[in-house]
Design goal:
Helix content is about 60%, strand content about 15%. It has about 60 residues and is α+β, with helices and mostly antiparallel strands.
Protein backbone atom coordinates (compact mmCIF):
# COMPACT_ATOMS: atom_id res chain seq x y z
CA UNK A 1 0.00 0.00 0.00
CA UNK A 2 1.34 3.42 -0.85
CA UNK A 3 2.07 6.05 1.74
CA UNK A 4 -0.50 8.44 0.30
CA UNK A 5 -3.24 5.85 0.52
CA UNK A 6 -2.18 5.04 4.08
CA UNK A 7 -2.43 8.71 5.00
CA UNK A 8 -5.89 9.10 3.44
CA UNK A 9 -7.16 6.15 5.46
CA UNK A 10 -5.49 7.34 8.68
CA UNK A 11 -6.95 10.82 8.11
CA UNK A 12 -10.39 9.21 7.87
CA UNK A 13 -9.85 7.46 11.22
CA UNK A 14 -9.16 4.02 9.76
CA UNK A 15 -6.27 2.00 11.21
CA UNK A 16 -3.64 1.07 8.59
CA UNK A 17 -1.01 -1.65 8.41
CA UNK A 18 1.85 -1.04 5.97
CA UNK A 19 3.49 -4.31 4.95
CA UNK A 20 6.77 -4.54 3.07
CA UNK A 21 9.36 -7.25 2.46
CA UNK A 22 12.27 -4.79 2.64
CA UNK A 23 12.84 -3.02 5.97
CA UNK A 24 14.71 -0.12 4.34
CA UNK A 25 11.82 0.53 1.96
CA UNK A 26 9.36 0.42 4.84
CA UNK A 27 11.47 2.87 6.84
CA UNK A 28 11.65 5.25 3.86
CA UNK A 29 7.89 5.09 3.43
CA UNK A 30 7.24 5.83 7.09
CA UNK A 31 9.76 8.69 7.00
CA UNK A 32 7.91 10.20 4.04
CA UNK A 33 4.59 9.93 5.86
CA UNK A 34 6.08 11.58 8.96
CA UNK A 35 7.53 14.35 6.80
CA UNK A 36 4.19 14.94 5.08
CA UNK A 37 2.42 15.27 8.41
CA UNK A 38 5.14 17.61 9.71
CA UNK A 39 4.75 19.80 6.63
CA UNK A 40 0.98 19.93 7.14
CA UNK A 41 1.53 21.12 10.71
CA UNK A 42 4.02 23.78 9.54
CA UNK A 43 1.52 25.06 6.98
CA UNK A 44 -1.17 25.23 9.65
CA UNK A 45 -3.28 22.44 8.20
CA UNK A 46 -3.75 20.91 11.62
CA UNK A 47 -2.19 20.81 15.07
CA UNK A 48 0.78 18.67 16.11
CA UNK A 49 -1.61 16.59 18.24
CA UNK A 50 -3.82 15.82 15.24
CA UNK A 51 -0.75 14.80 13.23
CA UNK A 52 0.44 12.56 16.06
CA UNK A 53 -2.99 10.93 16.39
CA UNK A 54 -3.14 10.22 12.67
CA UNK A 55 0.40 8.87 12.61
CA UNK A 56 -0.46 6.49 15.46
CA UNK A 57 -3.10 4.91 13.21
CA UNK A 58 -0.39 3.76 10.80
CA UNK A 59 1.50 0.65 11.86
CA UNK A 60 4.26 -0.99 9.85
CA UNK A 61 5.43 -4.56 9.51
CA UNK A 62 7.94 -6.46 7.38
CA UNK A 63 7.02 -9.84 5.97
CA UNK A 64 8.53 -12.37 3.61
Amino acid sequence: MGGGIAMVLANAGIPVLLKETDRAALDRGMATIQSNYANSVKRGGFSPQVAEDRLKRINSHTHV
